[in-house]
Design brief:
The chain has 458 residues and is of the alpha/beta class. 32% of the residues lie in helices and 22% in strands.
């Protein structure tokens, strides 16, 4: 049985790996010359690696870690000291540290010991978060009705404290401020660090995602008979007029591809463009217009000397950046760069109208305020990466609008961060959605149809 997966980001590749391991004939189509989607990297005209964003791997990313273990590259995750690091203007660094065996009680104790929140605010937050910390999933899901700032303020938490502690976290996780993001997203993140051993770990790939993550996944798939085609752009999905079935795919070069099953792992806006007219007669597909996408900006700064030698992700308080990472320290593969600083600019919509030079200037000014040693270094090169429609806007109420991986078209499935998978926007969410789509296909059509060789999946 043949499956065509459209899109080679983490969602599409996770789906392809699961299906190939269970005997399906898999073909993956990718419109770009590189794999990875929003986690991709590529070489610029100078031969320097550019990434879509600093990609932080958390210990709670069970699906992503399982995918890397299956491919044999889990050792490429470089785990850092278990702590949350915050930087304030004036060069102040605040840490919330956790022991390797941290469980919920110790994590709560660590948070209480932080200087980022007043004692009263900590007690109010911990009281409000207690149901989430104890594993009450219904409680977490029910918080999607309001934004996080209002949720915390209703507990009596000072709004200045919300901004100091949660604003960088919210902008990193969702690219939205606490007064825009669903309370469910932040509460879910806080609950996930209380899962126990290793949940508080933060890691980075040991180099660029292209070579260290996606090329090994491609090799793994090809060893199992899968075909991966880059620079292959879809023009239209062909649905039957008589039955709820997908008939084939028309490419922009005029080629027409057929399979038994089709999986869209495209971005939401791209999927909308290629669905045929009859798809909109289904309420399922009409709801895709109710899920909004937001832009992302990432900035890379290369300096002539080492600055910000912190070997971890750093949340930035009161700046246009939400997260700052020195990749030349966190990821050994970037050691050839004297100093490569990468940062998330969020919310990106506030700055998207500015030219690259203005964005770099704002970032450099804020970075110098956070880390005064930056003023002694010379900026050698800057790169701004813009993605106009990057990920779904997880505002209050958005969770209920996210579609399932299973569609009304019996042989057409979805995966991607915008689909419903129970996680928040992240590499984990994308990977999980791909595995879930593959599971649904195997539930419908069977598994282990034929074995292509290699080590059987667990």
């Amino acid at each position: 049985m043949k499956v065509i997966v459209i899109g080679a980001g983490l969602a599409g590749l996770a789906c392809a790996v699961e299906l190939a391991d269970n005997g399906y004939e898999v073909e993956v189509l990718e419109k770009r010359p590189v794999l990875g989607g929003r986690v991709s990297s590529w070489l610029d005209k100078d031969g320097d690696w550019v990434e879509t964003a600093p990609h932080v791997i958390r210990g709670s990313y069970k699906s992503l870690i399982a995918l890397m273990e299956r491919v044999g590259i889990a050792d490429r995750i470089k785990w850092k000291k278990q702590q949350l690091v915050y930087a304030s203007k004036g060069g102040k660094i605040s840490n919330i540290s956790f022991s390797p065996s941290a469980g919920p009680v110790e994590i709560l104790r660590s948070m209480i010991g932080s200087d980022l929140l007043g004692f009263g605010d900590k007690l109010k937050l911990l009281t409000g978060l207690l149901p989430a910390f104890t594993g009450d999933k219904n409680f977490i899901e029910n918080q999607d009705v309001k934004n996080f700032s209002d949720w915390a303020a209703n507990l009596g938490v000072n709004r200045e404290a919300i901004g100091r502690f949660f604003d960088p976290l919210s902008r990193t996780v969702s690219f939205l401020r606490p007064d825009e993001v669903s309370a469910r997203v932040i509460i879910f993140q806080m609950a996930s660090i209380a899962q126990g051993f290793n949940a508080t770990r933060i890691g980075f790939l040991d180099g660029d995602p292209c070579q260290r993550l996606f090329q090994p996944i491609q090799a793994y798939l090809e060893k199992r008979g899968a075909r991966i085609r880059t620079n292959t752009r879809l023009a239209r999905i062909d649905f039957s007029n008589d039955a709820p079935r997908a008939l084939g795919l028309e490419l922009t070069n005029g080629e027409y591809l057929t399979a038994d099953v089709y999986v869209s792992a495209m971005e939401l806006h791209a999927l909308r463009e290629v669905l045929p007219g009859q798809a909109w007669s289904y309420p399922f597909f009409s709801r895709l217009w109710q899920v909004e996408e937001i832009p992302v900006i990432t900035v890379q700064l290369r300096f002539d000397r080492q600055v910000i030698a912190l070997d971890n992700a750093v949340f930035a308080i009161g700046t246009v950046m939400s997260l700052v990472v020195n990749l030349s320290v966190t990821s050994p593969g970037y050691a050839d760069d004297v100093c490569l600083i990468e940062m998330i600019v969020a919310p990106a919509k506030d700055l998207f109208h500015l030219d690259d030079g203005e964005i770099v200037r704002l970032c450099l000014d804020d970075l110098t305020e956070l880390f005064p040693e930056v003023a002694q270094a010379n900026l050698v090169k800057s790169t701004v990466v813009r993605i106009p429609q990057a990920l779904y806007r997880c505002e209050p109420g958005a969770e209920s609008r996210r579609p399932s991986q299973k569609t009304p078209i019996e042989n057409f499935f979805l995966c991607g961060d915008f689909t419903h998978h129970g996680y928040t926007p992240s590499m984990e969410g994308a990977t999980l959605s791909g595995f879930r789509a593959a599971q649904m296909i195997m539930d419908a059509y069977g598994r282990n149809l034929q074995w292509h060789g290699g080590t059987p999946p667990s």
